[in-house]
C-alpha cells in the first residue's frame, strides 16, 4: 500500500523502512514504514491528503534532536522537515524562515545581518519548527521572545497563520502540542544590534555549552524538564547517579541532566534508565520528574 505514495511524489523524496537511528541525535530508533523528504508545502499537502484517505498515521520530524524513537520504529509516515524546508529571507529587522532550518544556522544568519535576539540559540541542534513546537530555550532566552507569526497547516492541509499572542507559550510548551498542526515556517522579529557584540555573545554561549554539555556523545539534550525550584543535574549528581548505566545508556558524567548513548544503546535501555532515575528522585525528593524528550513509536 505504501508504494502508492510514488504516484504523488518522485522516488527521490520517499524512503521505505528507513532506520530512524539515522535521523535522531540519540542515534536510536527502529525503522519507520515510509519517510517523506518534502521539497515544498505542496508536497506536504499532497501527502496529508493521501494519508488521510488511507487512514495512515503521520508523524512530523524536525531534526530529531528531541525525540526518543522506540526500537520497533514508527508505523506509518514520517514527514521529515529538517534539512528539507530550508529557506531563509532577511527583511530589515525581520526574518522569514522555513520550519526545517537548523536553529543554530538561523542564529548565525541573524548575527551576520547584525540582528540580535537569537544569540541563545547558538549550538541548539533542532529545527525552527521543533523549537517553536516546544518553545526551545537556553541561557535565559526562548524562541517565543522573537516569534511574530507562525505559518502552519492543519491535518486537512488547510493553511493557517498564528500570531504570537495566540500561541499559549509556556516553559517548553506551545499551542502546537495540542492542535496537531504542522509548522511550515515563521516570521521572526529581531532587534538591530552590533554585529561584533552579537557574535561575541554567541561565542561565549557556545563555549559554555561545550564546557558543560556532553556534546561528544549522541543524546537528546536534557532528558527531563526542570521541576520548579530545582535543577535536574545537581539533583542526580547528589544521588550518585552520574555514570549510572543500563546497557549502552548512561547518565552523563559531564552533565547529569543528559542521558548519553555510549554506543549501541537501545530505546529500551534509555526507558529503563529513565524509570530508574525517576524512582530514585521520587524516593529522595518526593518529586515526579517529567520527561522533556518526546517518546514515539510502536510499543
Ligand atoms: N536547549 C538545548 O540545548 C536543546 C534544545 N533542543 C530543542 O529541541 C527542539 C527539537 O527540535 P527538532 O530536533 O527539530 O525536533 P524533533 O525532530 O526532535 O521533533 C520533536 C517533536 O516536535 C514536533 N515538531 C517538530 N517539527 C515540527 C513542525 N514543523 N511542526 C509541528 N511539529 C513539529 C513533532 O511533534 P508531533 O509529531 O507531535 O507534531 C516532533 O515529535 C530544538 O529546536 C531544540 O530547541 C534539543 C536539544 C538540546
Ligand atoms: C539541553 C537543553 O536545554 C538546557 C539548556 O541548554 C541549559 C542552558 O541554558 O539550561 C537547561 O538545562 P539545565 O536545567 O540542566 O541547566 P544547566 O544550566 O545546564 O544546569 C543548571 C545548574 O546545574 C549545575 N549542574 C549541572 C549538571 C550537573 O551534572 N551538575 C551540576 O551541578 C550547573 O553547573 C548549573 O549551575 C535546559 N534544559 C531544560 C530542561 O530546561 C534541552 O532542552 O535539551
Kindly describe this structure.
The protein has helices at 41-54, 103-112, 128-133, 176-179, 195-212, 232-238, 267-285; strands spanning 14-19, 31-36, 58-61, 67-69, 74-80, 88-91, 94-98, 115-116, 137-138, 141-142, 147-153, 159-163, 182-189, 191-192, 219-222, 245-246, 249-251, 258-261, 294-296. It is an alpha+beta fold. A hairpin with a 2-residue loop joins strand 6 and strand 7 (94-98). Helix content is 26%, strand content 26%. It folds into three domains: 2-80, Uridine Diphospho-n-acetylenolpyruvylglucosamine Reductase, domain 2, CATH 3.30.43.10; 88-210, Uridine Diphospho-n-acetylenolpyruvylglucosamine Reductase, domain 3 (2-Layer Sandwich); 215-296, Alpha-Beta Complex (Uridine Diphospho-n-acetylenolpyruvylglucosamine Reductase, domain 1), CATH 3.90.78. NADPH dihydro-nicotinamide-adenine-dinucleotide phosphate is lined by residues 59-67, 81-82, 99, 103, 124-127, 129-131, 133-134, 136, 138, 176, 182-183, 221, 294. The site of NADPH dihydro-nicotinamide-adenine-dinucleotide phosphate has 29 residues, from strand 3, helix 3 and strand 13.
Top keywords for this entry?
binds uridine-diphosphate-2(N-acetylglucosaminyl) butyric acid, about 300 residues, 3 domains, Uridine Diphospho-n-acetylenolpyruvylglucosamine Reductase, domain 2, binds NADPH dihydro-nicotinamide-adenine-dinucleotide phosphate, five-stranded antiparallel β-sheet, Uridine Diphospho-n-acetylenolpyruvylglucosamine Reductase, domain 3, four-stranded mixed β-sheet, 19 strands, alpha+beta, about 25% helix, Uridine Diphospho-n-acetylenolpyruvylglucosamine Reductase, domain 1
Amino acid at each position: 500500500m505504501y508504494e502508492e505514495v510514488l504516484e504523488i511524489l518522485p522516488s527521490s523524496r520517499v524512503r521505505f523502512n528507513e532506520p530512524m537511528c539515522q535521523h535522531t541525535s540519540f542515534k536510536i530508533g527502529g525503522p519507520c514504514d515510509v519517510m517523506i523528504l518534502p521539497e515544498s508545502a505542496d508536497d506536504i499537502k499532497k501527502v496529508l491528503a493521501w494519508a488521510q484517505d488511507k487512514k495512515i498515521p503521520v508523524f512530523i520530524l524536525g531534526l530529531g534532536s528531541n525525540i526518543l524513537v522506540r526500537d520497533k520504529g514508527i508505523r506509518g509516515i514520517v514527514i521529515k522537515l529538517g534539512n528539507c524546508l530550508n529557506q531563509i529571507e532577511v527583511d530589515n529587522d525581520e526574518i522569514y524562515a522555513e520550519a526545517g532550518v537548523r536553529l543554530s544556522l538561523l542564529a548565525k544568519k541573524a548575527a551576520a545581518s547584525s540582528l540580535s535576539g537569537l544569540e541563545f540559540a547558538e549550538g541548539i541542534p533542532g529545527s525552527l519548527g521543533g523549537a517553536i513546537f516546544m518553545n526551545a530555550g537556553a541561557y535565559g532566552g526562548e524562541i517565543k521572545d522573537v516569534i511574530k507569526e507562525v505559518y502552519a497547516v492543519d491535518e486537512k492541509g488547510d493553511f493557517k497563520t498564528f500570531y504570537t499572542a495566540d500561541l499559549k507559550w509556556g516553559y517548553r510548551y506551545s499551542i502546537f502540542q495540542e492542535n496537531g498542526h504542522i509548522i511550515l515556517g515563521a516570521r521572526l522579529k529581531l532587534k538591530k544590534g552590533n554585529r561584533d557584540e552579537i557574535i561575541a555573545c554567541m561565542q561565549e554561549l557556545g563555549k559554555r555549552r561545550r564546557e558543560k554539555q556532553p556534546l561528544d556523545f549522541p543524546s537528546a539534550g536534557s532528558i527531563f524538564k526542570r521541576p520548579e525550584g530545582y535543577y535536574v543535574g545537581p539533583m542526580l549528581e547528589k544521588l550518585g547517579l552520574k555514570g549510572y548505566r543500563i546497557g549502552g545508556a548512561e547518565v552523563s558524567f559531564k552533565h547529569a541532566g543528559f542521558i548519553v548513548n555510549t554506543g549501541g544503546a537501545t530505546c529500551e535501555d534509555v526507558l529503563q534508565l529513565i524509570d530508574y532515575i525517576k524512582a530514585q528522585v521520587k524516593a529522595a525528593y518526593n518529586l515526579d520528574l517529567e520527561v522533556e524528550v518526546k517518546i514515539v513509536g510502536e510499543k
